[in-house]
Write a structure and sequence with these properties.
Length: 387
């Protein structure tokens, strides 16, 4: 029932080993203290730990489903990318086409031919799920909605969404428009990680445009103060869908559910899964990327030692009260020789639960160090010969 979302590469270069004891990452198969997940509604769902990507509960997570308006999570992701790259600004005006204005389903009530600030369209799409806003944004970035859909599919591949294909920016039903609960969780995790400055809009409870106040359709935002997103979806063939995220005491969980029979059912099921995860698991970042965890010898450098940091955060996810028997070994390529560039891989951290390897994290140089002077290099060359 449990599954690891990502498996890290197993290959590595032979290293000299330095051993450090630490409580670290558990895979779900080792989380024996946690009970079975609760029974909830929906054809398919997944509950994922945001920091580690570990799946805590699932039902048919790779079943192909219609995403409905949860499609707009990817639409937003592409727009956020354009903003981050400074290809667009929030104050840019977008002229509403007749096609966008005539869109079916949920609307932001923008008028054909008017120029609307990009920020207003984004909020209208995120809060009210406006199809008109989504199409206007897609046409601006992709020249057409079909062109934008290709950008969506390209990004889906980069994020590892292997069970997804988009044909539009809105989620209106089309035969070749589909996703999976796992893929939407992957996308949601990327959205929160890559664009925290924009993700905050997913917690807005209302949005006013043209004198019309539009309420966020995600009822969990008012039911649970720890919930801060993400997106609702519904049409007749998709049923009621919801991608949610909540954060409590530094731990964030993501759940996606598809095929519920009502608004209340999708919210109750999502709340039940989130509560299960928070009640029976605990998570913490034990070592941060950028934190110096080793300072090994560096030969032929202008400095004798160099800082080494994890290539990404080292995260612990354990069933409550578990995890005291874990150890981490750090291994470094030998010898380390200047010049050294920041970010260069210099080793690996391997985490074991008993004899079982449960995680591997690359170790990288935390700084750039140039070669030392000639006399220093000669001395270090002799030292290397005598090793």
């Amino acid at each position: 029932m449990f599954a690891v979302l990502h498996r890290l590469p197993l290959s590595f270069i032979p290293f000299t080993t330095v051993i450090v004891s630490i409580v670290l990452l558990l895979t779900p198969k080792n989380l024996q203290a946690a009970p079975q997940p609760p029974e909830v509604a929906g054809h398919t769902y997944i509950l994922m730990d945001y920091a580690s990507g570990i799946v805590l509960a699932e039902r048919k997570p790779d079943l192909r489903v219609e995403p409905a308006s949860i499609t707009k999570v990817m639409t937003a992701y592409i727009v956020f990318q354009e903003l981050a790259a400074k290809h667009l600004t929030l104050t840019d005006s977008i002229t509403i086409s007749e096609r966008a204005w005539r869109s079916e389903g949920s609307r932001t009530f923008v008028q054909v031919g008017t120029a609307v600030p990009l920020e207003a369209l984004l909020k209208g799409m995120i809060v009210q799920s406006g199809n008109d806003a989504a199409i206007a944004l897609a046409e601006r970035i992709g020249n057409s909605e079909a062109g934008f859909a290709q950008l969506m599919n390209d990004q889906a591949k980069r994020l590892g969404m292997t069970g997804t294909h988009f044909t539009n920016a809105t989620g209106l039903p089309e035969s070749n428009h589909y996703t999976t609960a796992r893929d939407v969780a992957l996308l949601s995790r990327a959205l929160i990680r890559d664009f925290p400055e924009f993700y905050k809009w997913h917690s807005l409870r209302e949005f006013v445009w043209g004198g019309i106040t539009q309420q966020n359709r995600n009822g969990l935002l008012t039911r649970d103060a720890s919930v801060d997103g993400i997106k609702t979806g519904h049409h007749d063939s998709a049923g009621y869908c919801l991608a949610s995220s909540a954060q409590r005491k530094g731990m964030r969980l993501i759940t996606t559910i598809f095929g519920a029979t009502s608004v209340g059912e999708r919210e109750d099921s999502s709340a039940t899964l989130l509560n299960f995860g928070f009640n029976f698991y605990e998570s913490s970042v034990l070592r941060k990327q950028g934190e110096i965890i080793l300072k090994p010898r560096l030969y032929k450098g202008e400095r004798e030692f160099i800082g080494v940091t994890p290539g990404r955060d080292i995260v612990a996810l354990v069933a409550r009260g578990e995890g005291t028997n874990l150890r981490m070994t750090t291994t470094l390529t030998e010898p380390l020789v200047a010049p050294m560039v920041v970010g260069k891989r210099v080793g690996e951290a391997v985490v074991r639960n008993g004899k079982v390897v449960v995680a591997r994290v690359p170790l990288i140089a935390a700084e750039t160090v140039s070669e030392g002077n000639l006399a220093h290099n000669v001395m270090d060359t002799l030292a290397l010969w005598l090793r």
